[in-house]
Amino acid sequence: MSENKPDFSAMKEELFYTPKHASKVLSADEVAAADAYCEGYKNFLNDAKTEREAVCVSVAEAEKNGFVPYEFGKKYVAGDKVYYNNRGKSIIFAIIGKRSLADGVRIAAAHIDSPRLDLKPNPMYEDNEIALLKTHYYGGIKKYQWTAIPLALHGVVVKKDGTVVTVCIGEDENDPKFVISDLLPHLAQEQSKRTLSDGIRGEELNVIIGSRPFADCDEAEAVKLNILKLLNEKYGIIEADFLSAELEVVPAFKACDIGLDRALIGSYGHDDRVCAYPALTAILETENPEYTVLSVLTDKEETGSDGNTGLNSSYMADFITDLAETNGVPGRICMKNSECLSADVNAAFDPTFADVLERRNAAYLNKGIVITKYTGSRGKGGTSDASAEFMGRVRSMLDKNGVIWQIGELGKVDLGGGGTVAKYVASHNIDVIDAGVPVISMHAPFEVVSKIDVYMAHRAFKVFFAD
Ligand code: MN
Ligand code: MN
To answer: How far is the CA of 96 from the centre of ligand 2 (A)?
Structure first.
């Protein structure tokens, strides 16, 4: 009897879909490669906290690898490496492929803006000899998370004569930092009755920037005057220059390893640098691809992709159209044969908040890059929903190349949801699917990802470009 009994364990292995912890599948060398790769990623996180900085850092790396600014209307040949810098806030890197543009392009599209606090146009005021800055939050944040943590100020100020002044205060070890206050628990009885989302209100996100008045100054607002004088000495700016500025308040802390095994990275801005960096390194490591390949690092995803640096603008389609048409191929023919990995994060299963995710369709830390067939909310509203055919193609490509991956849906049905740039890419008649890294504490000032997952994102984009 027993010798005829089927091998159920082997049968399960064959028939069940069972994503495994990547370190059970990878060799020690591959895990070490993931750890080594993430040292570069941590530097990127620290050097590129804003979309503008991400563009600068990426361009510098790309130029070292032979990328040159793209000229609209110029014909390029196979192997040429170009970049299209869209207003310093979004960027497309491309390598011309051996095949005709009529066969389409391969796109990895990630975003480089992250939730943060933007300064209001007229931000500075003094109240009881404390100088503060008014902010308007950018993207989906839990406001209470932004109080009582060290903050830095990044961005640009455009002076009346057109001069652009780059500002970065709070990142150097010796720099002062800034902070938003919270109420002491002793006096928070009324505040504690507020709901969590109302715990800190938008107009309470005021950044402390100074508290010492000019000595021997009898004027009102002598603290504000002192701070403006300091800014004037350092940057040559006056208060009216805030009117034409983009100044972003971001956490001042640096990326670091999390856990005794150092398997995770904690940082501000993983969403979506954790896909932008792998998309960038994938194209930097690509030479003479078969298809023309694009790494798109876009802006404005966190506020809905609107604006001319977001993917709801035509800048990517215009670039592809120009590439195609200078080679005698109509843009629409190129786009209909193109494929895109919409490279964005998904929620990782968090044991502490397990009930918001449906376990069989949730993404997990350390199980590789997460492929999300559809996003959206309440009946898939607002999703582009990749076809089974395209999902099938991506699935077999990843498996064939030994890339560890998993599927993931953003939370339980009707509990929430969200969108990415996928639908804006799909609107150009391009096949697109979401692929990214699972994140714990997404949109918090300090988010957490797994090193192996980051590396698998890099490998996925690389094989996509080579496939
Ligand atoms: Mn994102
Ligand atoms: Mn986001």
So the answer is: 30
* Sign of the torsion formed by the C-alpha atoms of 100, 102, 104 and 105: positive
297 CA distance to ligand 1 middle (Å): 11
- What distance in angstroms lies between residue 410's CA and the mean position of ligand 1's atoms? 12
CA distance 329 to 104: 10
Task: Give mean pLDDT, residues 183-193.
Answer: 96
Q: Among 104, 76, 32, which Cα is nearest to 332's? A: 104
The 3-state DSSP class for residue 403 equals coil
The answer to whether the CB of 208 falls within 8 A of the CB of 180 is yes
How many CA atoms within 13 Å lie on the side-chain side of 462? Answer: 17
Structure tokens belonging to residue 432: 């697109």
Q: What is the pTM (predicted TM-score) of this model?
A: 0.97
Q: Quick one: tokens of 34?
A: 């993931």
Q: Which CATH number fits domain 116-251: 3.40.1190.20, 2.30.250.10, 2.40.40.20, 1.10.760.10?
A: 2.30.250.10
Ligand nearest to the CA of 342: 1
- Encoding tokens for residue 427? 């609107």
Tell me, in angstroms, the distance from the centre of ligand 2 to residue 344's CA: 8
Q: At the topology level of CATH, where does 15-114+268-466 sit?
A: Aminopeptidase (3.40.630)
- Cα–ligand 2 centroid distance for 139 (angstroms): 7
Contacts of 357 (CB under 8 A, 6+ apart): 347, 349, 350, 411, 412
**Residue 133 pLDDT > 60:** yes
pLDDT higher than threshold 60 for residue 118: yes
Ligand with an atom nearest the CA of residue 302 = 2
CA of 417 relative to ligand 1 center, distance in Å = 12
Per DSSP (E only), the strands in 236-376 are 245-251, 256-258, 264-267, 292-298, 339-342, 346-347, 369-372
Q: Which two tokens stand for residue 462?
A: 């690389």
Domain boundaries, the chain: 15-114+268-466, 116-251
pLDDT tens, residue by residue, 362-418: 999 999 999 999 998 888 888 899 999 999 999 999 999 999 999 999 889 988 888
Residue 1 pLDDT level (bands cut at 50, 70, 90): low
Distance from the alpha carbon of residue 346 to the mean position of ligand 2, in angstroms:
9
Residues bordering ligand 2, an ion, CB closer than 5 Å = 271
**Distance between CA 58 and CA 90 in Å, rounded?**
10
